[in-house]
Design a protein that fits this description.
Blueprint lengths: L10 H22 L17 H24 L9 H11 L4 H21 L8 E3 L5 E3 L2 H16 L11 H22 L4 E5 L6 E3 L7 E5 L1 H8 L8 E2 L13
Parallel strand pairs: 3-5
Antiparallel strand pairs: 1-2, 3-4, 5-6
Helix pairs in contact: 1-4, 1-5, 2-3, 2-4, 2-5, 6-7
């Protein structure tokens, strides 16, 4: 019998699924606020129109659906055949008419949700491989999707704001980015940072201890916006200067 609700019982996975689904609803709301003509307008991502962002987010849901099916069946179904195929898919999707793009987004969200819903609780630890080659439990797809939909909702550039994001998502995103920077610090010369969110009790230290870390202050929303490469507004150094551009994080 097909499940009518999520079979997963792990509260951490359930929380990530909730973040992904709330983010999908937010992305869909911002998408549906666009007029047909506005699909052709620029996004916040260099070289991409809004229609590129919409196509990318839709095809990302399909790619994560393939990983979920892999975990369910044991039959390897990669996210993408190759990086080139992924890019070609997005370019093709960007040429679709407005109705087709809306349908792509809506149907891909539903399909992914159904696969998540019906995945048995003991299958969530099954290993799959991401497009970057990381081997992770399929439970990671929920967080991967949450990042995609919340961040790209802002990239549509029609009123999405980091201040709209759930506090728990902002905290997780900052910790995620800090961890990625720490792993690459020596190889890429990433500075040590201390991020001091004005609306949180604890700061976030990035990388190895340093006598001269870069101290940055702002709300958690503004720090997350900066750290994810989406502007420096509202983020200041300890001296009150504007923050420099953040290192690449993904």
């Amino acid at each position: 019998m097909v499940a009518r609700r999520d079979q997963v019982t792990d509260p951490r996975i359930a929380a990530d699924l909730l973040l992904a689904r709330r983010g999908s609803a937010y992305f869909s709301r911002k998408l549906n606020e666009l007029s047909d003509e506005e699909y052709d307008g620029p996004s916040l991502l260099a070289g991409w129109q809004r229609r590129h962002v919409i196509a990318h987010v839709g095809y990302n849901a399909r790619a994560l659906t393939r990983l979920t099916e892999w975990a369910a069946t044991g039959v390897e179904t990669p996210m993408y055949a190759s990086a080139a195929q992924r890019n070609e898919e997005i370019e093709y999707g960007s040429t679709l008419n407005v109705l087709a793009l809306r349908n792509l987004s809506d149907h891909a969200i539903v399909h992914l949700n159904v696969e998540w819903r019906d995945l048995p609780t003991d299958a969530w630890s099954n290993q799959v491989r991401t497009a970057q080659g990381r081997v992770v439990p399929v439970s990671e797809t929920a967080w991967m999707r949450a990042r995609e939909v919340w961040l790209h909702a802002v990239d549509l550039d029609n009123g999405g704001r980091f201040e709209h994001f759930p506090p728990e998502f902002l905290d997780r995103l900052l910790a995620d980015i800090a961890g990625n920077w720490a792993k690459r610090q020596k190889a890429e010369g990433i500075p040590s940072f201390v991020l001091e969110p004005s609306d949180r009790e604890e700061s976030i230290t990035v990388g190895e201890a340093s006598e001269t870390p870069v101290i940055l202050r702002g709300t958690a929303a503004r720090l997350a916006q900066w750290a994810s490469g989406r502007g420096t507004t509202g983020v200041l150094t300890a001296d009150g200067d504007a923050a420099a551009r953040a290192p690449r994080w993904i």
